[in-house]
Amino acid sequence: MNDSLKNKYDSIIFDLDGTLWDSTANVALAWQAAISKVDYIKEEMTQERVRSITGMTYDAIFDKLFPELNIEQRKEVQSLCAVSELEILHTKGGELYPGLEETLKYLAANYKLYIVSNCQNGYIELFLDLNQLHGHFLGHQCFGTKGNPKADNIKDVVNDHQLKAPVYVGDTMGDYNAAKQAGVPFIFANYGFGVVPDGMVATISNFAGLKDLL
């Protein structure tokens, strides 16, 4: 790991899906339950399909998954999936990456911690509630709050909390692009769902690697 990153930042902003936890298996169950309520979708919702759109904004997800639907149908499916997703995740949750809580506790002693995700409203709160992690984070922002792209939400967190030297940790090219647009350095979590070939200040192969890096 690169010791030169120690004491370089005052804060860490995290992506959620593919960075802090993997909820794709149970999201697939939730979305399958939702689409079974309409008669105009016949295909099956799989974990692989959910993984393929992880990191996209909630609106863009359903445009990509169901391009053949009209606008009204897509809005109905999106609404059904949003409700079903939160209901099922409240019960089943997701899979936390190994060493998550221990690493967050370590990092929170030295850095201000935040979450910025492209998820729907209530999703970050569910993650924090379910895993009793509120105490580690000072704030969060998501696509569902204002409908803004991730770069704008990163900027909001930086400005609202007066962060001087933040770094963003994410697992997809979309995360990297958003951090770059927001003017924030990027650490690539290569254990997640995406591929980022270059441009990051560091790469971690497991979440606990942040303890050595930062």
Written account of the structure:
The structure is a single chain. By secondary structure, the protein is an alpha/beta fold. It has 10 helices and 8 strands. Strands 5-4-1-6-7-8 form a 6-stranded parallel β-sheet, sandwiched between helices. A two-stranded antiparallel sheet has the order 2-3. Helix 1 (24-35) crosses helix 2 (47-53) and helix 3 (58-65) packs across helix 4 (71-92). The radius of gyration is 17 Å and the shape is globular. The protein starts with 10 loop residues before the first strand and ends with a helix. The model has no long low-confidence stretch (mean pLDDT 95).
Distinctive features:
single chain; 214 residues; alpha/beta; 6-stranded parallel beta sheet; two-stranded antiparallel sheet; 10 helices
Topology record:
Elements: E1 11-14, E2 21-22, H1 24-35, H2 47-53, H3 58-65, H4 71-92, E3 95-96, H5 100-108, E4 112-117, H6 123-131, E5 139-142, H7 143-146, H8 150-160, E6 166-170, H9 173-182, E7 186-189, E8 202-204, H10 209-213
Parallel strand pairs: 1-4, 1-6, 4-5, 6-7, 7-8
Antiparallel strand pairs: 2-3
* Count of individual beta strands: 8
Largest sheet: 6 strands, parallel
Amount of helix: 40-55%
Helix- and strand-based class? Answer: alpha/beta
| Fraction in beta strands | 5-15%
Q: Report the radius of gyration as a whole number of Å.
A: 17 Å
Weakly predicted, low-confidence segments: none
Q: Could you give the order of strands across the largest sheet?
A: 5-4-1-6-7-8
Mean pLDDT: 95
N to C succession of SSEs = EEHHHHEHEHEHHEHEEH
Cα distance spanning the termini: 9 Å
